[in-house]
Amino acid sequence: MNRKPIRIAVLVSGQGRGTNMQAIIDACRSGRINGEVVLVIGVRDDAPAMERARAAGVKTLAISPKSFESDDAYNEALLDALQKHEIDLVCLAGYMRPLGTNVVDAYRGRIMNVHPALIPAFCGKGMYGHHVHEAVIARGVKYTGVTVHFVDEEYDHGPIILQTVVPVEDDDTPETLAARVLQHEHETYTKAIALFAEGRLRIEGQRVRILPENSS
Q1: Residue 193 in contact with residue 26, Cβ under 8 Å?
Q2: Is there a catalytic annotation at residue 131?
Q3: Residue 188 located in a structural domain
């Protein structure tokens, strides 16, 4: 059965370079994901990831939380934009703000995030970017990795879709570890999105079952 390509929105931060976003765009255009990134939403129009999206020919929309009187009003504007663009899947790529309950409820099971560690280790509020890799090295663990999960109301908590293990080397710095993990972020994230687009992800409580090909 030929499935309809999914319409993807990527939410980005005000600081990130947008490499995960770019990986998703590239995977769609190469056919590895049966979908298209139709919208990139950021908190600042001049953010590096937003400029990168425009360079790739993708529509961008800046929605600044500072422009709204409350978080509720901001989240209503965010939800309105997603619904107007008929988004099927929301992908967080460095987006730091907790999503409002209205957004999570409207897109439950259709919002993904990538985290640069093996959840439930080294995750939660404040654990992002280099903070994660610094904590991993300081703790002396031998393996870290990448987790792609569905988003719920808590930080780094929703059902886990895929995980990839990445070794921690004795001479790693936060920078070298981040670079090695990032490569696996791109691969793992795009694979999870491809499975979603194929209708092969089924949420069962806190678990995600990956269905065989041609079973959806």
Answers
A1: no
A2: no
A3: yes
